[in-house]
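Service request form, structural biology core

Requester: graduate student, group of Dr. S.
Request type: structure prediction, single chain
Budget code: on file
Notes: please return the result as structure tokens.

Sequence provided:
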Amino acid sequence: MEAWPAHLHARLASFNFVGVLAAMRRLYLALPRLFATCLTLVVSTAFGQATEKPLDFNRDVQPILAKNCYQCHGPNDAEGGLRLNSQEASRAVLESGLKAIVPGKPDESELLRRVTSTDHSERMPPEGKGLSAAQVDTLKRWIASGAEWEQYWAFRPVVKPAVPEVTDKSWAKGPIDAFILAQLEAANLKPAPAADKVTLLRRITYDLTGLPPTWAEWEAFRDDSSPEAYEKVVDRLLASKHYGEHWARKWLDVVRYAETNSFERDNPKPHVWRYRDYVINAFNDDIPYTQFIREQLAGDELDNPTPESLIATGYYRLGLWDDEPADRELARFDELDDLVATTSQAFLGLTINCARCHDHKIDPLPQKDYYAMAAFFSNIRPMQTRGDHIEQVLFRTDADRQNYQNELENLQKQRDEFQARVAESEAKFRAALAAKNGEGKPDSSDLDSLRYSYYRESWDNLPDFAMFKAERSGDVPSKRFDISIADRPDAFGFVFEGTLNVPADGQYTFHLDSDDGSRLIVDGKELIKYDGIHGEGTVQKIEVALTQGQKPIKLEYFQRGGGRGLTMSWKGPNFDFRPLSATPDKQERIDIEQVINTQGESLLGRDAVREYRRLKREQNELRGRQVPADYALTITEYGHRGREMFLLERGNPQSPGPLVAPGFPGVLDSSVPAMPELPESAKTSGRRRILADWIASDKNLLTARVMVNRVWQHHFGRGIVRSPNNFGGLGTPPTHPQLLDWLAADLMEHDWRLKRLHKSMVMSNVYQMSSRPSADALEKDPANDLFSRFDMRRLGAEEVRDTLLATSGTLNTKMLGPSIYPEISAEVLAGQSVPGAGWQKSSPEEASRRSVYIHVKRSLLTPLLSAFDLPDPDFSCDSRFSTTQPAQSLAMLNGKFTGDMATAFAQRIAKEAGDDPKQRIAAAYRIALCREPSEVEIDRHLKLIDTLEKEHAQSKESAWRLFCLTVLNLNEYLYLD
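Core staff response, request fulfilled:
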């Protein structure tokens, strides 16, 4: 091919061919497929399906019935007496006296007559254009063959099948090759030839680490002529720390990992990055997949919890959380639904969440199964901004734990001391203000030894305070039930305990008014329990007989929101009502701090005000001080008693139905799990452990299948089941079901270790094939369902960014730790409701770390990653889109980040290759493409650089930068194979 004119090379610096060439290549490859498909339809129509495959009920028939008939004739409805969701029901006599299906007799089957009727009043389905000719033919052949319902493939036990015999035994190195080759030979196809060494090295290096191979790695592989050369590469990559970084990201897609809560504020989730690091380490350490499951679902309920297993329970905190929902009860069930959806799809490949409002339309999953699954999670305490029930300190040793407790107690003592001193100072100002205003002093002999315990928490109902740890406690300076010592306007609680001085035997009346709830206990008897919300309701009143003397008194109170308020008074035989609370009835609470700021000097003098402000400053500093420790975002529960779960009619929390116990989906396991008997001191119900053990069991029908399918998907471009999160009826049936079961059984037989599974796949000849299809393969296998060749793929979002960093020589390979914040343009930040909110600024060195460490803010995803199809983190993503669209070319050619990488790349090749232009070009190709440039390519690039300098007045440095930018935009750079 002749060298291109120099002026065309100059245009390479201002135009990106990536999208255009990729689209043209896809169109070129699609044309033969399109032609082949059309030809197949014509031939099959003309010659009566001469080459038709045997019918498979689950693959060919059930989807037709599910999508077109179940709405009226499925699990929930039986119009005309017909149900088509089971073999027995489909053969029953209808209300009309006819039979919808008569096995072996299509002409006598009412179903076939109705779907082929030209009478619109009879034709089924009644809406749309009806069934296609191909669908009708499928139903006809199925009925003629006996209309047998087969057990759905995903709900059969995993049985390791025999490895098939193949003709070309020299090609089949192992079972994987044999299963693939058997179907290729049945279709009279041959596998594609082996990929060349450069292609294979790039493919395996990206697949296992997400990074490009270095030139040194290529030279070592190129020069190794031993039979074990490729296996050595595989073993090296599986042992690399970058393996865990790359494969963790794939799992994070599935569990909808993000580091913020979404909704209006989209605030950050504290310490959530530790979960990401846990996943990275789990893959690198090759822990058994069953352990991976148990630690995430029940890491705190294991026999011996570890810091890692506690961090793993951050899984439950990854989803959306609305910190100010309009309907709290609905929000709670939405959070439970998110857990049911993610857990069932991620681990079981089932859309159990479809049964929230009604029985599943397709799969045998009744609504009861949904709520039985939700019951495993019903005791989980909801997400919050911060606090003990979502944050946990991690301890490696008992000594670490004891040291932390000692430091924490010392800090709490200091806080209590300053709280008392501040309260004492405020009390003096209150007394001075009351004296100034001429107010009488309330009787101070009613309560003695009054102490408080203070809680920072948000409740919907009056809680059992014994289940929570107080933030602080101490004496009440005012000797009254005084909530003014709270340090926040809402979301707090108090427990006051002391003695009530009863002056004489007789009848006593108590008045209690509170926001939001309160409980009064006198002499061991509960007198008042009140759950008024935001002041709704009336003052609670009770009359009780008391004997003279000191009686223990306890008052519990919580404030959720909407303004605080607690007033309490009592009346006895010899006195009228007098207050027991610091704020008398019908008197507004005094903002004492504002009083001190405005009137303090006139009340007690300047020195007293200065002393008060000093105390407040030190108190605030103590409140913000933390004992140094590693915190993790974790799961907690309400206690050992699991909260009850009811089936909700139509999914409405306001319409609870029958009680539902925790249970497994009946189609997978009809046994009812026994709930554990736990002591009162237990912090959890133990339910999640039961669920985790069941999912991680060798007897589970789906767990191993789902995971091996995910690993296969990421090595071969698509799963054996193309719908990795849905193995149900609306999913795609496996193209190689026996291979799927063989791999699942093999995974279980070898301790559920994933690295061994990786190796078995990438060592196969199937994996090492070229992506170039033969004409025969394009005709017979246009969608590559038979794996007749390897699928070409574009680099993923993180791979694109990480490759740019690696190529430029600026990649920081530091592992783990808090997330990073790469630079985002002001224009993008301005699109937020509060521009720049929640996006910090990392140093250039930190910002050059791998993309897996980028802070994932739901409302502000990194633009370059989004352009290359980073998924929406709001929902589980089983497979990413791979689009070709203008934003990619704009980002790669005109984006600041890519421009910076091109500059650094130019500086790198100048440093490594010196001043010789040819050597620089060669160095660029070795680094970026892992190959030597041809003489033609060298000549083109030399002319490009010369033209840029002479005709476009570019400096030498600028010309080389534009050359490097051109290399970074080559299809060969962004595409594998």
